[in-house]
Design brief:
Pfam families: PPR_3. The protein has helices at residues 41-50, 52-58, 90-108, 112-125, 131-144, 147-159, 164-182, 189-217; strands at 8-9, 17-18. With 243 residues, the chain is mainly α. It has a domain at 97-232. Strand 1 and strand 2 (17-18) form a beta hairpin.
């Protein structure tokens, strides 16, 4: 039996000195052992794929906020100009919306002045309303405007035939904020920003499911929420594979 303390001598000033030859059993093997990662790789790939569009929205914009970058250049595409503000494809509208959503979020974190400027830029862009845009406007109104303006935005979302589950979700949050304000316990902006960010995530999931369903069954028109109901029932509540 070999004592490991006899193999190496770590004496002060003498350095590392091998005092006896290692036996064959101590020779290291070339076999590499890889520790398994947590979770299954297949499930991780599906999760990353489902969260890809949401991460694109949440990542900070590479362009400066002072740079407009909202208007879409129609000369980049050879297709006919059929969309709003010179946008010639659904992907360009999506990019413009993502930039505006980031701008609204960053403005909500700063002050009412920045929020008003971001809303004006949204109105100038004149892009179609969707789940995320309406949700951000509702919570921005609760932060810096009034409950009445938040309810008006909710009514516009109803006219655009946004999914009822998201409408009920936002309506209950408006009612909670209004009730707490009437009781003299209005939530501070820092806490409500967390609610706003969570609502943004919920709206992104609803929007993503709707767009995938429309793209798979109709091929275009993903920015028209009313097309979700072309089959006469709610497809998001069925057992069909939506992902």
């Amino acid at each position: 039996m070999i004592n490991l303390s006899q193999i190496y001598n770590f004496g002060k000033g003498k350095g590392r000195r091998l005092i006896r030859k290692l036996p064959r059993e101590f020779i290291s093997s070339a076999l590499q052992v890889h520790m398994p990662t947590l979770g299954l790789s297949g499930d991780q790939d599906k999760l990353n794929k489902s969260l890809r569009s949401i991460r694109k929205e949440f990542l900070p914009d590479l362009k400066s906020e002072d740079n407009e970058g909202i208007a879409i250049d129609a000369s980049r595409s050879n297709t006919k100009n059929t969309s709003v503000n010179g946008a010639s494809s659904d992907s360009e509208i999506t990019v413009a919306k993502n930039r505006l959503h980031k701008r609204l979020w960053n403005a909500a974190r700063k002050s009412s002045k920045h929020w008003n400027l971001a809303v004006k830029k949204l109105e100038i862009a004149n892009l179609p309303l969707d789940e995320v845009t309406g949700t951000l406007l509702i919570h921005g109104s609760l932060l810096y405007k009034s409950h009445q303006e938040a309810l008006e935005t909710l009514s516009i979302m109803k006219k655009e035939v946004i999914h009822p589950s998201l409408l009920r979700y936002n309506a209950r949050l408006i009612a909670i904020h209004q009730e707490l304000s009437n009781l003299g316990a209005r939530p501070c902006n820092m806490n409500w920003l967390k609610v706003m960010r969570s609502s943004w995530l919920v709206a992104s999931f609803v929007k993503g499911r709707r767009e995938r369903f429309i793209q798979r069954n109709m091929g275009q028109g993903i920015h028209k929420p009313s097309l979700l109901w072309f089959m006469g029932y709610d497809p998001l509540l069925t057992h069909e594979k939506l992902y």
